[in-house]
Amino acid sequence: MAKDLTARVRHDWTRTEAADLYARPFFDLLYQAHTVHRAEFDPNRIQMSRLLSIKTGGCPEDCSYCSQSARNGSELSASKLMEVERVLAEARKARDAGATRYCMGAAWRSPKDRDMAAIEAMVKGVRALGMETCMTLGMLSGEQTLRLKEAGLDYYNHNIDTSEAFYGEVITTRTFADRLETLERVREAGIKVCTGGILGMGETAGDRIDMLVALANLPEQPQSVPINMLIPMEGTPLQDAAPVDPFDFVRVIALARIMMPQSHVRLSAGRTEMSDETQALCFFAGANSLFMGDTLLTAPNPDQDRDMVLFGRLGLKPEEAAPILEPTGVPAAAS
Ligand code: SAM
Ligand code: DTB
Ligand code: SF4
Q1: Fewer Cβ in 10 A, N or C end of the chain?
Q2: Cβ of 238 less than 6 Å from ligand 3
């Protein structure tokens, strides 16, 4: 029977309600989140995504967490957009290692129209390998969004990162409203939305709760919600940020699971600094997706061997690939 996509999904979350959940005793919160998780998903399956930076560094935005901002003092040099064939060779390796979604990220404020043909070729090529595609390219115009949709893009990642109130403390070159505008374009074009945020940038628990309320109350809940733990990158204004209490991190995952019951919640950046036990608690609380492979965009990530040992100890299995459909609904042939 087809899953009812509306019954348990609410768009009227209030801050007080979410804060009350967040403040529950840890085990009560975890039990509730895990109950929701089991009702919607196989709790022993984790969706595996792989990231590739297709254009690194030199970004004009001033995101204070990011090693790729030209305004931050990191050592990273700016690259050109990677050639399509190289992207596809990397994507093939990721597929052969078990990834079912390939996420391509560019250090842009927004794409230039001259780059769109190469971007479209990457989407088509990765889909032809039998993987879902995700792009994260910054803000999109209406026309660029439609071009991505026509190329067959499955997901667009565009994080709101934090609460609206705290946003200006982290980024000044764009607004929270700019972010929502691109998300609306993506949603209206029929591309699945991947949006989440970062913990550990100096925000309060209230900011974290407000961020989740903003995500859950979007007109359609994002299909994918990455929750990143800040990786304090050298040379950035947040290089000395205080680490997040792992139990607070798990609470945010649990809250995301309860408020967005049918979304994949991704345990994203920061896993190299996380113990196996913390990651296991995150999976119990409802995280059911991760980035596999030893590199994120510019920062390290646990390698596959470490993840597979952890999966073995916990009895977890990678989620199977979703069928890749042509626009007509006919499954595409994988090569
Ligand atoms: N330039 C595009 C944009 O900003 O949307 C795409 C790439 S950007 C690097 C993607 C996301 O990675 C950011 O929105 C942020 O949430 C996350 N991110 C970047 N640097 C991070 C860090 N040091 N620690 C944790 N997450 C980070
Ligand atoms: C997301 O939320 N996290 C990913 C992906 N979306 C694009 C990026 C994490 C970046 C971590 C820092 C780095 O690799 O430079
Ligand atoms: Fe640029 Fe994205 Fe990094 Fe911000 S997060 S500096 S927009 S690459």
Answers
A1: N
A2: no
Query: 318-329 pLDDT, tens per residue?
Result: 999 877 777 555
Residues 6+ apart with CB under 8 A from 91: 50, 52, 102, 125, 126, 129, 131
Residue 166, Cβ neighbours under 10 Å: how many? 20
How many residues does the structure list for the chain? 335
CA–centroid distance, residue 312 to ligand 3 (Å): 35
**Whole-angstrom Cα distance, residue 316 to residue 320?**
12
User: Active site includes 59?
Assistant: yes
Element (H, E) at 36: helix 26-40
Determine which one of 63, 185, 251, 257 is catalytic: 63
Interval 92-146: pLDDT, tens: 999 999 999 999 999 999 999 999 999 999 999 999 999 999 999 999 999 999 9
Rounded to the nearest 5°, which phi and psi values hold at 123?
A: -60, -50
Active site residue 71: no
- Please choose, from the candidates 51, 153, 157, 136, the residue with its C-alpha nearest in 3D space to the C-alpha of residue 94: 51
Catalytic residue of the set 50, 95, 147, 194: 194
Q: How many CA atoms lie within 13 A of 228 on its CB side?
A: 23
For residues 51 and 296, the answer to whether their CB atoms sit within 8 Å is yes
Q: Which single residue is written with the structure tokens 């090529």?
A: 125
Q: How many CB atoms lie within 10 A of CB 330?
A: 9
134 is catalytic: yes
Q: Is 61 in the pocket of ligand 3 (CB under 6 A)?
A: yes
Q: Are 293 and 94 in contact (CB under 8 A)?
A: yes
Predicted local confidence at residue 329, as pLDDT:
57
pTM above 0.90, yes or no: yes
Task: Determine whether the shortest distance from the Cβ of 230 to ligand 1 is under 6 A.
Answer: yes
Q: Which candidate, 312, 309, 274, 307, places its Cα nearest to that of 289? A: 307
Q: Which two tokens stand for residue 202?
A: 């100096």
Q: Are 222 and 193 a contacting pair, CB within 8 Å?
A: yes
Is the C-beta atom of 107 inside 6 A of ligand 3?
yes
* Sign of the torsion formed by the C-alpha atoms of 39, 289, 242 and 160: negative
